[in-house]
Give the backbone structure.
Amino acid sequence: MRRMIVNRPMSPAQSEVLAAGLLTTGFNCILQMPTGSGKTWLAEHAIRDSLARGRRAIYLAPLRALASELGERWRALFAPFVVGVFTGEAPGPKAPSFAEAQLLIMTPERLDACTRSWRAQWHWIPEVDLIVADELHLLGEPRRGARLEGALLRMLRLNPFARVLGLSATLGNRLELADWLHSVEYGSDWRPVPLRWRTVTFKKAAEKPALTAGVVGECATAGGRSLVFVQSRRRSEQLAGLLREAGIRAEHHHGGLDRPARAIVEEGIRSGRIQAVVATSTLEMGVNFPVRQVVLHDLQTFDGEEFRPLPVNNVWQRAGRAGRPGLDDSGEVVLIAPAWARPPRAYEEGRFEPIRSRLAEPAELAEQLVAEVASGLCLSTAQLESAFGRSLASHQRRLPSVGRLVGEMLQAGMLVEKAAKVEGKAPRLRATPLGHIAARHLLAPSTLLLFKRAVEAQPLTFFDLLFVACSSPDCEPVLPVNFEELEEVAGLVGPEPSRLLRLPDSEVRSLLQVGGKRALASLKMALVLRRLTRIGDPAQVADDLDCYPYEVARLQESVDRLLLAFEALVRSVQKGAEPPPQSLVDLLRRVTALRRMVVAGLDESAATLTFVPGIGPKMARRLVAVGIRHIEDLALSGPEDLAKVQGLSPARATRWISAAEALVPDHSASTLREDGPGATLAKGGIPAGVDPYRLRRALELTVVCRGAGFEVSGGLEPHLVTMTPVPTCDCADFVKGNTCKHVMAVRLKSGDLELARAATIVTAMTEQIDLQRWWFGSSQAPLSQLRATP
Amino acid sequence: MTRELKTRSGTIKFPAFIPVTTFGNHFPLDPLVRPYLPLLAQAAMVSYPYAQGPVPSLRIPLFVDSGGFACLLPGGRVEEEDGLGVLVIEREGEEARRIHPREVLDLQERIADVAFTLDFPCPPGLDKNEASRRVALSQANSLWALRNRRRRDLPLFAGVQGLYVDGYRESVRALAGEHFDGFAIGGLVPRARNHQLVLEIVRDVRKEIGERPLHLFGLGQPDLISRLFLEGADSADSSSYLRFAADGRQLGNTSLRNRDPSPTERLNLALRNLASVGTFRVPLSATGLLWASPHWRSQMSRQITT
């Protein structure tokens, strides 16, 4: 075991860290070292030290895939110590429990969950000696950052003997973070293989694929492998295809692919079977992925709202993959950039952005406040102020007012305040059932408030319930809708029985607290899941609705979790209304059935089979496969009909049939059937002659005068527009003969009255739901600040 | 010379502060602090009444006291039975509970690494006759336990009680000739404000017992016990580190008080208090939480009461 660690020659950075004893000073420690320079090796040393002293260690892996990969490797490396992987996925039969594992590999979210239910985990939390926080810059990521920070803060209060070892290649404020954690710190820019930076410029964006093919081809000819980063999944597929046409063995890699598909590509590049991988940000961190060349085909990224220049931190996370130790003299980073706007020097110089605490966001702090109270760790506002006084947000003087947020949570019904039993003590805070559900299911308070509004707005159809769940900030992945898809989405939504979509637009927005493209995405996600409940085949659904099967699977998992919380909420509302009104009883039945429909891809008729005790969603599918379509079919069948179901004993079959017979009078196959009016959607109302899509996009672009032309940015790429003698743009859309959005943006900037009038019409509001207007509108919450900003 | 005590769960090197804990859910802070005791103490002390349920694994030697101090509490008294002292606890609405030295020894032989005989403190102002009776019964219990113990690997400490310094001296002389593994002085808590008196008692008892370990019941003030360790005491136990923490206070720094401590602030205060009274080093990473960092100080100062 020891041999496996010490046989590798140490890098200068590793030697310095060990010689200075930074891992064993007893202080927390932050190590900032480039990708591939041996941070993980140092973490292994620190872990070994803790395990050898009979203590436990936690390793926080940013990705489930990385956690699994490390688990496999470390089981051998650290044997006989017990290594457990805890990522929220179903554990295998031989997987160690929390109590058994001495090295616990987990995601930040899992640690968050453990610290929220700390009483149940108290048998191991005090034994933790070391928490390795890999990719510490996650602290600055929306949603994940607040959960990581909240979990670390709770863990250190529950176990003040635990030390944090933070690792990252890209921290713009390492000293500030070290000051926050009272830690020692070490920074090095030593790399085992030095990087060479090169910028390849294009005059027209259409030239980019050929340029990338050229640099990747050069590398492949010289025996190297390339990793090309692009900004979208579609682009990764298209560019990989183009590289293959150029004779390069290339594949794509993105979040739409399932784990095995990604693993095949990863293995391909490691073995040399593949010469180039075109990837989105999925390969930005974590997985060991050695290549000689990294090409940044796109220097812009979509942040959920708009395209922005790629942050330096992301550039370096990607660039750091270049250069294979022992195989390459240097790694090459190629930036594909427009000739008129060269990439900023900060890229090559590695001037990283500082990590800003996400607890500065009221919505993200609110979630943590509710979790603290629900877990019984803070019982008053003063205690919450004290606990979050230790946060990075507070250290950076960006912590929102805890008192004000507690007030909002009280008003929203997530918390209640009661007089203290002891005289003179501040009033005690308690989580309401709503607050407890949010904390237990790791959901944002805004999600539970959304569900609460939905309960009040019932009756809701299955589609409505899915639309509500998919509108939650906790629902992922978000499946964006292209403007070109609007008509198709409208066509699919139209026939869906829905009460929500017959309400005025303002009421829908007020209920969902989302608008714009996010609301459209929710519609598409709801359509995906509703279709899944009808045809049961994720691959077919993905094909029909232009997404990936893996996305459908993740959406199923996410909505299952959300509906479980929804169920819990309805149950708690029922408890408060004895006897519960029939509407609540019906709602609970529908939500429970819908959850099963989503999990197993069942329609509402088949879901009635799950009313029979002992029949779960998976068994219902098996029954459907042998022709038993609903509960009435089951009641009318004989044990011999069920004999076709493998592994089902005759005694069980008879029991189910009897149960179905008893249930049919009140729970017939029509119980869940829906026959209601469909959605009422407005037509666009945009004047002819002006393409509304391009015009609306033009309104979002930035125009800067550059000599004889204009640089137009804010889209996928910056483009150059010249207006004389006739308007000309270098974009592909213009080349096809269209008046592109860039030209429109310049015309608007130049005061074109006709276009300005059209723009006014495009952005006009009506009370009827209009998908085009949603597309053009803002995704920001219209009312509450409890929704996180991206 | 550094004294030490071998037990079946490990050797204790003196001087040592022995934190008091309880099993079960009598005090919410105890289950939180208990897992950390091995990091901050060589052994832990539990009293007979608080050790009735399942015994959690502490991974350090366990001292088990007889709980004789309960005779000082309302409803508590000492009765004689066949020449031995029996503790009787009577609570309103409950049947009187009689605790015989046999019961105490039975439990100690089941769970203890170090045992203390059933003794009865004599607080200042106690009637002299009653004090003499308690001292005599304490001695009788000690001798009975010595003769009746079955586990040879269980060090047995004789309880030493008295009303005045002379009384303590006479009490220890009566026991010093027997083969006790150590001695424990009780009744010091109500006398703890008089440092000179306590020092004198400790010096006198030390003179009589040679190099055998000397334990002090119930003392947890850091400055006092460090002086007593210099005067010949080897160990002391107390729950003050917990009681102060539960009240939002630091041991040895009573000017600061957190009026509204959260459960984890209580935990951190208890660990801090224990570290300040014990001889263990605390990891540097914990210092920010366990000692008053500038931020924590500002939090505390907002809630200071004088």
User: Anything to note?
Assistant: The CA atoms of residues 103 and 202 of chain B lie 29 Å apart. Chain B touches chain A through 28 residues (CB under 8 Å).
